[in-house]
């Protein structure tokens, strides 16, 4: 059975966040096929990689991620099988700060640090075979 391991390596997280080109593909309803890759913002906090759903918990990719708990990411030439770990609580304040620092000039920043998006925060961890 697949289980989550430690975090992605610090270098992998740096490369992914710096490239700002993360595509996420949770498993589809069949639990086997990967969904269509969705481009998504990513941030780094303490060498861990976090993403949020712009449309909150109603986002299709978020719902699939929470239901199936695994999927795949593509970024900066890397392809990784990952586990989706929902995040809540005080860590969201630090994740907000990372979004503010990285996307300060974006008109979409407000939506990404809203309570709606906070409720759909996911930590990406590597999947162990």
Structure description:
With 129 residues, the chain is α+β, with helices and mostly antiparallel strands. It has a single domain, classed as Electron Transport, Fmn-binding Protein, Chain A (Pnp Oxidase, Chain A, Roll), CATH 2.30.110.10. Helix content is 30%, strand content 33%. The protein contains five helices and eight strands. Strands 1, 2, 3, 4, 5, 6, 7 and 8 form an eight-stranded antiparallel β-sheet that branches. A hairpin with a 2-residue loop joins strand 6 and strand 7. The longest helix has 12 residues, at 91-102. It is globular, with a radius of gyration of 13 Å. Residues 1-6 have low confidence and may be disordered.
In short:
With 129 residues, this protein is α+β, with helices and mostly antiparallel strands.
Key traits:
8 strands, single chain, alpha+beta, Pnp Oxidase, Chain A
């Amino acid at each position: 059975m697949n289980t989550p391991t430690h975090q992605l390596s610090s270098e992998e997280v740096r490369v992914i966040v710096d490239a700002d080109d993360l595509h996420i593909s949770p498993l589809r309803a069949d639990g086997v096929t990967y969904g269509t890759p969705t481009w998504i913002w990513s941030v780094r906090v303490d060498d861990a990689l976090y993403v949020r759903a712009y449309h909150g918990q109603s986002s299709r990719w978020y719902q699939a991620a929470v239901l199936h708990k695994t999927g795949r990411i593509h970024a900066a030439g890397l392809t990784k099988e990952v586990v989706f770990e929902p995040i809540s609580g005080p860590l969201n304040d630090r994740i907000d700060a990372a979004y503010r620092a990285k996307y300060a000039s974006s008109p979409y920043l407000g939506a990404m640090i809203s309570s709606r998006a906070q409720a759909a925060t996911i930590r990406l961890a590597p999947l162990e075979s």
